[in-house]
């Protein structure tokens, strides 16, 4: 699929990925992302709601979706899961199907945020210990497992991204990569708009904190760091072809030959989920039934 990318991909470094990154910045970014998933400027609903529709549609409908346990593999502060879970389970129950379970995992588990999320839903649980998405093991027992990589796949350089995909192919039954940052004009414009919002939400969050007298001086730094990471995230965005190349390059097979050999279907698409510019780029792999 042609994504109209403006320049080649470079794996530059985001501040959030650095060990020296202040925790306050990482927390603020994840909190912002959790809000972003719920925001809506579309009659089709929030990005999270629209992602839930992509999940159901691509898995083959509600009945098929109900066979999976969903693992949010780089969950941050929860990302879209607290929105997707009630929407999807409500739809499943409305047609007489059982609720599905969601599991939050991350290399750096945000236990405070996850405790709060799971206290509101018996269908969301979390793993307290670090789970590395590059060598993830199956977490869903006998159920089919669907791994979600929300706004995180661009964090992995090519060798790590390849390991993430291989681990999904080896030990799960489906995976979805959702990204909102890309080397495209709409994505770059979206980052500009979003950073105005980050400024206001940061002021709001810190104003009520007892530490606000300290943080009020740091507040302008947070949107600046966020804008930097947003731009780097765009530069690190992958097209579907670049994503599938990670899977096929060692074998020299075409995507169709790879699908045939491994019994998986690889799909991709893009949809405007946060007008005017916010475009969701998704890639999905689904294991074909034997
Ligand atoms: C930009 S945040 C996205 C958070 C969340 N998915 C969302 O949509 O709001 C990227 C997340 O990837 C996690 N991460 C980075 N490398 C990882 C790895 N190797 N295994 C698991 N998680 C990882 C980080 O800890 C961070 O929480």
From TrEMBL:
Keywords associated with the record: Membrane, Transmembrane, Transmembrane helix
Transmembrane annotation, as ranges: 188-208, 214-232
Descriptive protein name: Methyltransferase domain-containing protein
Organism, as annotated: Zasmidium cellare ATCC 36951
Native organism taxonomy: Eukaryota, Fungi, Dikarya, Ascomycota, Pezizomycotina
């Amino acid at each position: 699929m042609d994504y109209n990318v403006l320049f080649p991909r470079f794996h530059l470094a985001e501040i959030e990925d650095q060990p020296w990154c202040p925790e306050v910045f990482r927390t603020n970014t994840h909190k912002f992302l959790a809000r972003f998933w719920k925001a809506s400027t579309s009659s089709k609903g929030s990005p999270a709601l629209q992602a839930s529709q992509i999940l159901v549609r691509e898995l083959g409908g509600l009945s098929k979706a109900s066979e999976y346990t969903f693992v949010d593999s780089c969950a941050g502060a929860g990302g879209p899961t607290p929105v997707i879970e009630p929407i999807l389970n409500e739809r499943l129950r409305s047609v007489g199907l059982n609720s599905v379970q969601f599991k939050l995992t991350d290399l750096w588990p945000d236990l405070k945020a996850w405790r709060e999320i799971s206290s509101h839903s018996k269908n969301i649980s979390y793993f307290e210990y670090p789970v590395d998405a590059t060598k993830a093991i199956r977490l869903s027992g006998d159920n089919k497992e669907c791994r979600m990589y929300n706004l995180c796949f661009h964090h992995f350089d090519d060798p790590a991204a390849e390991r993430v995909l291989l681990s999904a192919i080896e030990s799960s039954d489906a995976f979805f990569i959702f990204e909102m940052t890309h080397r495209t004009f709409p994505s770059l414009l979206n980052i500009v708009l979003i950073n105005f919002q980050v400024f206001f939400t940061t002021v709001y969050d810190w104003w009520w904190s007892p530490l606000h007298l300290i943080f009020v001086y740091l507040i302008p730094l947070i949107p600046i760091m966020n804008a930097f990471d947003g731009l780097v995230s765009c530069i690190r965005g992958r097209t579907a072809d670049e994503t599938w190349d990670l899977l096929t390059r060692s074998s020299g097979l075409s995507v169709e030959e790879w699908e045939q050999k491994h019994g998986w279907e690889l799909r991709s698409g893009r949809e405007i989920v946060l007008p005017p510019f916010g475009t969701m780029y998704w890639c999905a792999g689904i294991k074909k039934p034997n």
